[in-house]
Specification:
The complex is a heterodimer of chains A (about 120) and B (about 110). Chain A has about 120 residues and is mainly beta. Chain A is about 0% helix and about 50% strand. The chains are: A mainly beta (about 120), B mainly beta (about 110).
Chain lengths: ~120, ~110
């Protein structure tokens, strides 16, 4: 595809449910990032992959959040036992290399609403 | 940790007026990037500034990076309705061999026709 895609675009979950959010980066892109964007705020870093290796997960807010990228392409962000404070837009971005100064291309995001 | 502050939070201007948003980081940055997010959309990369004191222009948009590489500004001349959106700066620091972006709080620009 021409850009980063994410699915689903919208997800409504009952508190306590588990959710899985998918990101398809631009083909061949080495780096993949997950961000959380609350309403009216800027995106906040969650985690970063270089190929299949998760090199930085310092932004994950709790151990209920888990991300993987097993084959170095598609990535899944999983949130267990969702809470209302998890409601946000989850953005995925990819960049072509692992080098400094590389542009990050964002997907459309998944809007998660926890009731 | 690193903090990136942006002012103002909101800006309403008449079409044709100029607009400026300012960005300040608590730490020295390797580079700073600017993004535009339309209502309901996702951040779209505008530009990256790397060098101390760098100034770049894109048509009506002028971007500056401070001498200390801790602050930046975006200036739009003669705004148009297509400029509506939220402008984010994102400060980059090297982390695990790649850039970790810390986004500012954003400035939401609305245009009065």
């Amino acid at each position: 595809g021409a850009g980063v895609s994410q699915s689903p675009r919208y997800k409504v979950a009952k508190r306590g449910q588990d959710v899985a959010l998918r990101c398809d980066p631009i083909s061949g892109h080495v780096s993949l990032f997950w961000y959380q964007q609350a309403l009216g705020q800027g995106p906040e870093f969650l985690t970063y992959f270089q190929n299949e290796a998760q090199l930085d997960k310092s932004g994950l807010p709790s151990d209920r959040f888990f991300a993987e990228r097993p084959e170095g392409s598609v990535s899944t962000l999983k949130i267990q036992r969702t809470q209302q404070e998890d409601s946000a837009v989850y953005l995925c971005a990819s960049s072509s290399t692992s080098g400094v100064g590389d542009t990050q291309y964002f997907g459309p995001g998944t809007r998660l609403t926890v009731l | 940790g690193q903090q990136v502050m942006q002012i103002p939070q909101y800006q309403h201007v008449q079409e044709g007026e100029d607009f400026t948003t300012y960005c300040n980081s608590s730490t020295t940055l390797s580079n700073i990037q600017w993004y535009k997010q339309r209502p309901g959309g996702h951040p779209v990369f505008l530009i990256q500034l790397v060098k101390s004191g760098e100034v770049k222009k894109q048509k009506r948009l002028t971007f500056q990076f401070g001498e200390a590489k801790k602050n930046s500004s975006l200036h739009i001349t003669a705004t148009q309705t297509t400029d509506v959106g939220t402008y984010f700066c994102a400060g980059a620091q090297i982390n695990f061999g790649n850039e970790k972006l810390t986004f500012g709080t954003g400035t939401r620009l609305t245009i009065i026709p």
